Amino acid sequence: MLDITASLPLVLVAAVLGYLLGAVPFGLVWARVFNLGDLRQIGSGNIGATNVLRTGSKTAAFLTLICDAGKAGAAVLLGSALLGPAEGQIAGFAAFLGHCFPIYLGFKGGKGVATYLGTLIAVAWPVGLACCATWLVTAALFRISSLAALVASASGVLWALVLGHGSAALLAGLLAGLVWIRHAANISRLLQGTEPRIGKKA
């Protein structure tokens, strides 16, 4: 369980800084660098790596994935180093919220998969890597990014408990719930059999 022992001001500092870092829309940044157009007008309109991949640029998609995961991981590590482990988790959670609801884009952001993984890798790397492996296996079997994201996020709590990182279980569960909420439209398409597969261009 997450044990918040710091004073409220430090908690607020961790949350605000984590949110602002997480709100940086790297998908839009890399789409602009590679002259891919306005990502919000392409494919699903999402600012994450999967939609960047639909532009046909694997390099831009990879960079988006790394940066979206990295900003959450950085928030956790900075929060932990400067304030404490509890504040690090709070900063990571706030970075996830920043990615999904960025103030810079009118609170219309991504679905949080990369930031979910980046947060867990920084909080408890065995758990984060296990979730990454779960995503890769599911994606390889079904070639559907959203399905892989749903399965990987749902596995986070289980991996946290199995691998002996119970302190990360609550955070993993909260983030997974938000990932599923953000994927409501994808879930509907999955049930209808109309969800696009990985690599399909816009």
What's the number of structural domains? 1
**Share of residues in strands:** under 5%
Q: What is the CA-atom radius of gyration, in angstroms?
A: 16 Å
Structural class: mainly alpha
Euclidean distance between termini CA atoms: 42 Å
| Oligomeric organization of the protein chains | single chain
Molecular shape: globular
Structure summary, number of beta strands: 0
Task: State the helix count.
Answer: 10
Order of helical and strand elements: HHHHHHHHHH
- Summarize the main sheet: none
Report the average pLDDT across residues.
92
In terms of per-residue confidence, which ranges show pLDDT below 50 for 5 or more consecutive residues? 1-6
| Helix content, binned percent | 55-70%
